[in-house]
Amino acid sequence: MKLKDKQIIRGLKEGNRHTVQYVYDNYFHMCQYIVTTNGGNKEDSKDIFQEALLILIQKIAEPEFKLSSQFQTFLFSVLNNQWKVELAKRKRTKKISEVPFLKDHTDEELVNYYDQKISSSLLWKCFNKLRKDCQDILRLWWNGHGQKEIAGVLSYKYGYLRKKKINCDESLICIIKENEELMDIIKDDPDLISRINFT
User: Fold this and answer.
1) How does pLDDT run across 50-60, given as a tens digit for each residue?
2) Cβ contacts of residue 38 below 8 Å, gap of 6+?
3) Domain locations in the chain?
4) For the whole model, what pTM was predicted?
5) From the CB of residue 122, how many other CB atoms can be counted at a distance below 10 Å?
């Protein structure tokens, strides 16, 4: 069951362990992607997430606290700051990201950026489970080639290509449905797949 932001805040404020587990299950992947693509590893991700969650709970417990953005954006801001602090402690000179960070982008813009990267990565994992012939067909289709053109490029008969593409589509859908993490993202953003670049 998907929790609304107000429910998450209330649950964390009350110390509800189910809410804490919900936050971990639904948002740890964002922390892991941020950390592992910016100089850290999976163990760093776990440490940073725990630290960020404690800070989050402390902030929520303050009497004057009021959530002024989406919970995901709020959490991202805390995670981002914690990782920057950790990198500073390690005296690393490497920038946190190839893209400009907080000084040029809002937290919400960066959340969307990482969501896109995470979703793309998950979709690629699903796509790579397909047979090679299906990958070739779907890649050409997503790049704007018509079925007759694809049939010519891959030396298939047109009728066979049409049936084959339907089977490939169904295979990919089945693989995606088995990926719970990706399905949760798609439920929130049904147009996601159409925006992923599979070139």
Assistant:
1) 998 888 888 88
2) 83, 87, 94, 96, 97
3) 1-108, 128-199
4) 0.54
5) 20
